[in-house]
Design a protein that fits this description.
By secondary structure, the protein is mostly helical. The protein is built from 19 helices and two strands.
């Protein structure tokens, strides 16, 4: 039987510990590692058009080539649940730090291999090799994202819980920004012919090196205090953590899965899919599309910080209502104004990117939705299963939908922003399990035993 003591959203009953040097070190190394690993995962999408031409037959219809290219992109998402469940399983049993380090190593090697793969012109059918590497990347990122959020959420003071996860999320989205900037640099310094011949390989090779650097940096992190307490009391999950999650925390799983659907719409459509959409549908030059995307990703990164900071002060629910409502409005503002002028493209894309930063509220609510003994597994299962379905299939759905309606991205993002607004009204938006026994989370926590 579970007993609960509910605190109002915004309450701060926890001891007034502030962020210390060790907390900043943990935040910095975790965010930097997340930046480098997420760069490895998303750089593929910035070169989707080039990869489609290189890894599929030249006589294939363009829309079918793009469909298959994004199908391989989707395969990375579909592999996330397997990697996430396995890594989280051992993370709840043997510790957060070990799996946190392993996940980034599993990302670096496939990224490097992609940069060295022979193309269709060299060996004929080359796409299966690309597919295999994307699957391995998906398995790695499946453990990285939930692991990073749990790791930081269990480290930072309760009063700065939202800020900590918001900062980490901004670091992860910084990986998208880094990928966007690298793509801009490649397209600025090399001609389209040079990009197709060799320059497309550079960001993947760099990503492999970045990943190995991050593996080294994570050696300096320490196990979370929460897991140490669990291990000391021998409260580590005794049965398979996933079994406990499915038996006792189904409602939390559904809630986190729906929030993840909203997050996937914001990230996959607005940030990852839109650069290709701008080029293919509105014939905006690649360099201009990628520059505008880089600006939007910068405001997204700032938006994550703002959402985390505000969550500690005015409550997660209030931030979600403002943020998802703003995303609904700015999505239509941005997509309905295309192609526009370069200045309006920059301004509108930056504004919608800022409201995409509301995604930071998803891990803020998601981490505290599960108790410590099964927290990693619960978050990883719900998040990755949802992202595998919705995040992976979204580009494919939009590619087909665009055959009928050029406003498809706006409709999809707005509909999911509306879902996020409704989810903010539910109790789990404002409360959750304490990070530690007897210490409720700032922003309103439910202490459950």
């Amino acid at each position: 039987m579970t007993s609960q003591a509910t605190l109002p959203d915004g309450a701060q009953p926890a001891p007034a510990r502030t962020l210390g040097s060790s907390d900043y070190k943990t935040l910095g190394l975790s965010a930097l590692g997340g930046t480098l690993e997420f760069y490895d995962f998303v750089i593929y999408v910035f070169f989707a058009t080039v990869l489609g031409a290189l890894f599929f037959p030249a006589d294939m219809p363009d829309w079918l080539r793009q469909l298959q290219t994004f199908g391989i992109f989707a395969a990375g998402y579909l592999a996330r649940p397997v990697g996430g469940i396995v890594i989280a399983h051992f993370g709840d049993i043997f510790g957060r730090k070990r799996m946190f380090t392993l996940s980034i190593f599993l990302m670096a090697a496939p990224t490097l291999v992609i940069g060295l793969l022979p193309t269709y012109a060299s060996i004929g059918v080359a796409a299966p090799l690309l597919l295999a590497m994307r699957v391995l990347q998906g398995a790695a990122i499946g453990g990285e994202m939930p692991g990073a959020w749990v790791f930081v959420g269990e480290h930072v003071p309760a009063r700065r819980y939202g800020f900590g996860i918001g900062m980490l999320t901004s670091g992860i989205t910084g990986g998208i920004l880094l990928g966007s900037l690298v793509a801009v640099a490649i397209n600025r310094h090399y001609s389209p012919v040079q990009v197709s011949e060799f320059a497309w390989r550079l960001p993947f090779v760099l990503g492999g090196v970045f990943g190995l650097v991050s593996v080294y940096l994570r050696r300096f992190l320490h196990e979370t205090p929460v897991f140490k307490e669990l291990a000391g009391r021998r409260s580590v999950a005794r049965e398979m953590p996933l079994r406990t999650v499915l038996r006792e925390h189904r409602l939390a799983c559904v809630y986190v899965a729906l929030l993840t659907w909203v997050l996937s719409a914001a990230i996959v459509v607005v940030v990852l899919y839109t650069p290709t959409y701008l080029q293919k549908v509105h014939h905006i030059p690649a360099a201009l599309a990628l520059e505008a995307n880089a600006l939007a990703t910068l405001t997204l990164t700032l938006g994550c910080m703002l959402a985390g900071w505000a969550s500690d002060r005015i409550g997660t629910r209030t931030v979600m209502l403002i943020g998802w409502g703003g995303l609904f409005a700015t999505a239509y503002l941005f997509y309905s104004g295309l192609p526009g002028t370069p200045s309006t493209l920059y301004a509108h894309y930056a504004l919608v990117g800022l409201f995409v930063g509301t995604i930071a509220t998803v891990p803020i609510a998601g981490v505290r939705a599960f108790p410590a003994p099964v927290r990693f597994t619960g978050l990883s299962f719900a998040y990755n299963m949802s992202y595998a379905v919705f995040g992976g299939l979204t580009p494919v759905i939009l590619t087909l939908w665009l055959q009928r309606d050029t406003m498809a991205p706006a409709h999809y993002v707005a509909a999911l922003a509306g879902l996020g607004f409704l989810l903010a009204l539910l109790p789990l938006a404002a409360r959750g399990h304490a990070m530690r026994d007897g210490a409720a989370i700032a922003g309103g926590a439910t202490m459950a035993r």
